[in-house]
Design a protein that fits this description.
mainly alpha; 6 helices; 0% strand; FOP_dimerisation-dom_N
């Protein structure tokens, strides 16, 4: 009995290491989602924004070769079988691409842009605060105090 248990453990470890176990689990999950969806009420049609967001997620999963996750995602969210064209997706999201940005997903590139823009915005806010303080419009020493 101990030998059978060791064999099962070794087989499970080998399948997990090779990725086959994860693929089987993902396929099973996708089938369960599909079956449950068939039993439930039909999903409403996805909005244009939802379709675009789901495509960003699909592109990210496929870029990193998360094939099992992609199959579960597609089954659960009923995305079209054929992905949207990257150029179309970038145009719809107003993302300007260059050779460097094409080496990453649009989602990652957009996140980097957002981080950069947020950093610039904080710099502008800091400059405005400094201008207000220097001009006396915003006096930190007497802030919140009323004169009697």
């Amino acid at each position: 009995i101990a030998t059978v248990a060791k064999l099962k453990a070794a087989l499970k470890e080998t399948l997990a290491r090779g990725g086959a176990l994860g693929q089987v689990r993902a396929c099973l999950q996708a089938e369960v989602f599909a079956t449950l969806d068939d039993l439930g009420k039909p999903r409403p049609a996805a909005s244009h924004e939802t379709l675009l967001m789901n495509e960003l997620i699909r592109e990210y999963l496929q870029f990193h070769q998360y094939n099992s996750s992609t199959s579960v995602f597609l089954a659960e969210f009923s995305q079209p079988e054929i992905p949207l064209d990257r150029d179309f997706l970038a145009k719809e999201l107003h993302v300007v691409e260059d050779p460097c940005s094409r080496s990453m997903t649009i989602l990652v590139h957009s996140g980097m842009l957002l981080k950069t823009l947020t950093g610039l915005l904080w710099q502008v806010i800091s400059c405005v605060q400094i201008c207000f303080i220097r001009s006396g419009v915003f006096d930190l020493v007497n802030y919140g105090q009323t004169s009697s």
